[in-house]
Amino acid sequence: MTRFAKNSLGRMVPAEVPGVGPFDPYSGPFQRINSVHGIVGASVRLRTVDRHGSKIAASLEQAIKNSGLENGMTISFHHHLRNGDAVMPMALETLKNMGYKNLTFAPSSIPDAHDCVADYIKCGLIGRLYTSGVRGRLGGLISSGEAGIPVVIRSHGGRARAIEEGQIEIDVAFLAAPTCDKLGNISGSSGPSACGSLGYAITDATYAKHVIAITDNLVDYPVARNISIPQYRVDQVVSVNSLGDPKKIATGAARITRNPVDLKIAHDTFRLMKVSGIIAPGFSFQMGVGGASLAVSVYLEEYMKKKGIVGSFGLGGISGHMSRMLEEGLFRALFDVQSFDAVVTESVSGNQNHVEIDSSWYANPFNAGCIVHNLDCVILAALDVDVNFNVNVLIGNDGVLRGASGGHCDTAAGAALSIVVLPSFRGGVCSIKDSVSNVTTPGETVDAIVTERGILINPLRQDLLALARGAGLPVVDIGDLKSRVEKLTGVPEQQERAGGEVVAVVEYRDGTLIDAVYRPER
Amino acid sequence: MIARTASAGSLESSDCLVTVTPSESFELDYAGANKKLFLKRTEGVARQVLAEYSVENARLHIQDQGALEATLRARIETALERAMENLGS
What does pTM read for this prediction? Predict the structure, then answer.
């Protein structure tokens, strides 16, 4: 029988996940970080290759045979090719045909398009799942409890930490390599399947026991420019016809929203940033590509230009808009773990101040300094929030998994000012709950929530509250706003969760369990 | 009296489609993504509107696409009025 523990947010989390191991309950955003100094983490396996030999494998199947992969081992992938990715399905199908069973599938995340992962769980190929998020048919399968496999959801920083700490031991890393030479130097920013940064894959390649690069652009040795991953981390190279659909890999830059609700949220967010005093020379910033977040950067860009403010760096998940701000000299550098569109890919290859970073550098709390810990301000989206400012980005109103943890809790914890933007209701349901169905990011790391019906400021930030009130911003109490919105939507019935079946666990970035995902009532 | 089957609303996002049918008793068939969250609210609103029109028995099918309470009420009222309309047969 699974034992449960109550974590410091009052969430019931299992003390152990069968087939994975024991977990400590979450006890605060920086509790474990403060006690980790001096612990020895994962080791890196040494290996050598023949001098003047070849790393080219005849086929993916041959490369897998050569890798020594066995049933029960762990394979990793990265999601930089977005919905255009064909590498995950290609490798999983090959592994299935080769008769593999019970592998631990540990991608950096799973693109929305990859519903096929559900089939590879059902057929027994995948026996454990470590990911940042699940959506679509896969989310439905896991939420239903019918997957019957352990699922651990981690943030991007948390995944890097788990790899470096040794909880995810990658036996074989499969790298989608947009440009690659015969010895395995890889660049993400050129070739027909160019995707920009290969940030998550860099960490995988560093710690995996065996690395297979899969490329559709095998070039003469050497790849000279913009090497994302160097040859000494790559064991084999496989040439294939295509890494995926270039139209879905190199998507166009997201348009700025015209939705008046999003624009109102964006404008009030910008006003809050301004009165906080954080937009000053040396300012650093991260945002998502959701409607409201992206629109914030339009107001920010205009203001920085007008005032002649030059920021230090932009971080993330980089969008085309951020690349333009770099080009305009509004930031001195961009640190890019994952590029969101084709404009960014060009910036990675063409602008020297656009720096490709690995996921540990980005957000791993257990190293000598990840960049999120230097961040001034982050704008984050959410599915819903609760009156304690806890944020859910994983589970929809129907109780089904439909999101990804991403860098949400990493940046919220790291940034001096973390702002969550969301409409006050969505799909007829108030976005503010008494208690969110799942805590992905703890309220103690969220400074403010901006809705179109008012700005909600965390009581932990009395300083910010005073500044916002002083400037006449539309600050409202979170409980009052909830009541007001529920007059429009009606009050939802409380969904049972305690004592139910756990279908996934959610790690905080430090490896403790911040929450569990329970099977919704049928 | 409910004379016939009638509908109001649409399947657009943030709307609902309400269909009223003659019946021997009160029946509610509530469908949509929010069915678990808002079944009690929806039944409450439906019974209240029916009472306002002095209708005791009717079968209501509601496909909820995320409607606000005011929208839900308006669609039920209109569907009822259409179902009760005297067409002068």
Answer: 0.95
Question: How many angstroms separate the CA atoms of A309 and A505, rounded?
Answer: 43
Q: Which two tokens stand for residue A335?
A: 């640190």
Q: Where are the domains of chain B?
A: 6-84
pLDDT at A522: 65
CA atoms within 13 A on the CB side of A303: 19
CATH number of the B6-84 domain: 3.30.230.10
Alpha-carbon span A309 to A285, nearest angstrom: 13
pLDDT < 50 stretches in chain A? none
Residue A520 to chain B, least CA–CA distance (Å)? 10
Q: Which residues of A touch B42 (CB under 8 A)?
A: 490
Confirm or reject contact between A122 and chain B (CB < 8 A): no
Residue A499's pLDDT is 61
Per the listing, tokens 């490709």 go with A356
Question: Which residues, in sequence order, are bridge partners of residue A130?
Answer: A152
CA distance A381 to chain B (A): 20
Take residue A455 and report the two structure tokens written for it.
């700005």
Nearest CA in chain A to B45: A490
For residue A398, which residues of chain B lie inside 8 Å, CB to CB? 33-34, 36
The closest CB to that of A488, out of B13, B37, B69, belongs to B69
User: Number of residue pairs across A and B with CB atoms under 8 Å?
Assistant: 52
| pLDDT tens digits along A214-226 | 999 999 999 989 9
At residue A250, the pLDDT reads: 80
Residue A159 tokens read as 């995944």
Question: Chain B residue closest to A495 (CA)?
Answer: B37
Residue A325 is predicted with a pLDDT of 97
B64 contacts on A by Cβ (under 8 Å): 428
- In this prediction, residue A362 carries a pLDDT of 98
C-alpha span between A44 and A162 (Å, rounded) = 14
Structure tokens at A370: 């990840």
Q: According to the model, what pLDDT value does residue A249 have? A: 87
Give tens-digit pLDDT for B42-67.
999 999 999 999 999 999 999 999 99
Q: What is the pLDDT of residues A178-195, one digit of tens each?
A: 999 999 999 999 999 999
* Distance from C-alpha of A434 to C-alpha of A402, rounded to nearest angstrom: 21
Q: How many Å lie between the alpha carbon of B63 and the closest alpha carbon of chain A?
A: 13
A97 burial class (0-12, 13-18, 19+ CB within 10 angstroms)? exposed
